Amino acid sequence: MISPDKEKLFTEVFKENRDKIYRLCYASINNKDDVEDLFQEVMLNVWRSLENFRHESKFSTWIYRITVNTALLYNKRFQTKSNRFINFGPTELDEGHSSEDPFQMSNDDELKKLHEAISQLNKQDRIIIGLYLEDMNYEEIAEIVGISMNYVGVKINRIKTVLAGKMEEMK
Amino acid sequence: MIEIDALKKNWQNQKPAAENKYNPEKIASDSFIKLKKFEKKQFRINIGKTIGMGLMILYLFQSMLLSSTFSVIKLVGVSWIVLSVIYFLIIYWKMQLKVNKLNVQGNSLDFIDEVLENFTIQKKFFKEKFWIFGATLLIGLNILYVDLLKDLTIPERIGFHFLLVVLMLAMIWGGIKIRMFRFRREYDPIIKELIKIKEDLKDKK
Predict the structure, then answer these.
(1) What does the domain layout of chain B look like in residue ranges?
(2) Is the minimum CB–CB distance between B115 and chain A shorter than 8 Å?
(3) Residue ranges with strand state E in chain B
(4) Which of B3, B26, B111 is closest, CB to CB, to A94?
(5) Alpha-carbon distance B52 to B63, whole Å?
(6) Is A162 exposed, middle or buried (0-12, 13-18, 19+ CB in 10 A)?
(7) Full-model pTM
(8) Which of the residue ranges A100-104, B66-70, B117-121, B165-169 would you say has the lowest mean pLDDT?
(9) How confident is the model over B14-35, as pLDDT tens digits?
(10) What does the pLDDT look like over B112-124, one tens digit per residue?
């Protein structure tokens, strides 16, 4: 039996965090065609884990932990087919439905370059910078990833330098 | 030099292009309906599998008990096979359940450890435990054949038993090989990737 509270909570979580989660999914995988799949997987894991949220950490940290872990394990070949049928995009019944990707990313040139540069990083660095760009502080990132705050700082500085270098090359 | 921090605001302003076209409340409630359907479907599949297996076992026993050639040895053989299949299916399902219930809420390093541990258990199951399963099946089938071949001569009976053992061992070996090939193809890339990520993060923890 699904409680109405769970439904309400999920709807709130979905509404409040959809864009953030989607951006992190987008940053964390290289094949952008799979972003929708990964996003669905994350939402499914959020749904399954909602009852276990213990308020020991901030809700945003909890959501990001699920997103990061799902992204870490995400592998097209490894995914179970049963999970893929849930489409969290608009249904065909929605007014104005078109084949257009509902999650088109920005057309801003600098951001395009940033996306391109991020896609050249390894998975863990893509995730860490994705969290950083969402304004997570070192402490929160350390809590999500499970490494020390100092190492988060070292990593982020290193990643930022690499990204800036790659973006300069693209000019 | 490009300042990454200066792009933070723009990054966070990236929103779904079609946001205005769709009603977020509607998307959320549609998603919820889909999740409910998904859970119901999973539940029905599991119930279906359990009922199917139960019916097969019942049919097997019923046809054996009603058969004119019913014997205690046959009953022991069939029971042995059925029990070993059930036992190994339970172990397998429990293992699968554990994979589906990975704790995605913990920190990434702990999560990676848990995933790797689960993969190791699965690999071990197919590499080692599957032989035990094959051996128990082999014992059950040989018990059945003791009864089925009782009218033949001793050399003929030995020959059939030998053939059965060789065929079964070949099938088990083939089954393990196929399973391990699939495991390597599906799981090894992600295992290698996770180990690499873990090493990169853990060394400097």
Answers:
(1) 2-203
(2) yes
(3) none
(4) B26
(5) 16
(6) middle
(7) 0.76
(8) A100-104
(9) 876 555 444 556 666 666 677 6
(10) 999 999 888 888 8
